[in-house]
Amino acid sequence: MERARLYTHIVPVGFSSEKLIASLKQFPVHKIIVLTHKGDENNKEVQSVLKAIHQAFKGFEIQNRLVERENVLDSSLEILDIINEEVKEGRTVKINISGGLRNIGISSYIVSLVTNIPIYSDIPEYTDKDTYHLRGILDIPLFPIKELASEQITMLEKIGNGVESVDELISRLKPELEKGTTDFSNERSRLSHHIRKLSSEGFIETERFSKNLIIRKSKLGEIYMKGKEIKRLIKKKGM
Prior knowledge:
By secondary structure, the chain is of the alpha/beta class. Helices cover 45% and strands 23% of the residues.
């Protein structure tokens, strides 16, 4: 017998509770993760929104998670970590950007693009300037992201937290190759082409130190790889 789906909605919080609550009520909800920012504990408007959400969804599991406000790539990485936790627990995740700040809306869309996690917003209707009604739900379309070649994905995996040289990367990719051999030199030439391409597309950052080329994943590279991992988990769990 197929297990019933459990739905987690990730909800960036701004200054309006009506939009968030009305749009959330259009879906099955088992858990709500509200995203706030450092300093929001002293913001009366944000605290009022949080109180309204708790009142509207009494008995539901509601978590508050802090994410970066200014840097959209940093907040994207933080949201990806939250989604990864939920997917590992077997939950189906949706992102609601009906009432959040613009910056976090951008981060949420980046996250949705790399994971294929559904993202939605409200379609508002106002009978006057102060009276809000929910006219419908906007399922935000996702534009396809060009997939990297499998070799380049493997390179990003093996780079991990960084390598101090191309030789170190070769040893991680093909530990059977001996330094100084023709095969090792050929592999170095082959990787150099991929390194230039990954660098030009913003997935890695490189720095020359003496004769070595230090290679690190960029934040964009981290986002891309975390998205790949979440997609893999979703497929594995049949969600």
